[in-house]
Structure formats: structure tokens, C-alpha cells
């Protein structure tokens, strides 16, 4: 299965909807899409992972790299809609302490 990402921009907020499996075979496409995002100061980026059904360490690395780039360029990134499995993956690696991950409320899909 592939991974797909679609973006929608409203005001100074960019919404990314990611769907599929993120592994060593599909990660390059996601990496390219995220690298193409133009981050300007104050841009808020919300990445919805509610339709990601699998992710390995390659996917984690892509999100960490994107998160770091956004911080360097004075943007903000929030991950939302993580399944319990994905949420646990970020917790086990300690990334949930570093990254902005919304887990407390149900995320409404904004399509």
C-alpha cells in the first residue's frame, strides 16, 4: 500500500491529511511532499494521521526531521488523529514529550 498526503491551507494554517502505510518503501514520497512545504514564520501546520494504519521507524524519522525544520523556520507543527498504536510508538520513543501531539480530544477531519 502507498502513502498519500493532501494539503489544505486556510489563513495562516496548513492542514495535511496523511493516509496509508509509512514504511521504508513508501517513506520517500512522504518525505518529498513534506520537504516541498514552504514554511514561513508563524505558519501553523496540522498533520492528521487518523488514516495512517502502519508506521515504522522510517516514518518517525520523517516527522522528526519535518518538525525540526519547522522549528528552525519559526513554524509550528502539531500531529493529530493518531491511533492508539501510533500514539504508543511516539510515547515509547520519547517523541511525544518533544513534539506537539494532540491526543486528548477527537479530531474532526477538515476536508
UniProtKB/TrEMBL annotation:
**SUPFAM superfamilies the record matches:** SpoIIaa-like (SSF52091)
Q: Supply the InterPro entries for this chain.
A: Anti-sigma_ant, STAS_dom, STAS_dom_sf
Q: Which UniProt keywords apply?
A: Phosphoprotein
**UniProt cross-references to PROSITE patterns, sorted A to Z:** STAS
Q: Which Pfam families match?
A: STAS
Q: Where is the STAS domain?
A: 18-111
Highest taxon of the lineage? Bacteria
Kindly give the NCBIfam families that the UniProt entry links to this protein.
Answer: ant_ant_sig
Q: Which family does it belong to?
A: Belongs to the anti-sigma-factor antagonist family.
Q: What does this protein do?
A: Positive regulator of sigma-B activity. Non-phosphorylated RsbV binds to RsbW, preventing its association with sigma-B. When phosphorylated, releases RsbW, which is then free to complex with and inactivate sigma-B.
Can you say what this protein is called? Answer: Anti-sigma factor antagonist
Supply the source organism's classification: Bacteria, Bacillati, Bacillota, Bacilli, Bacillales
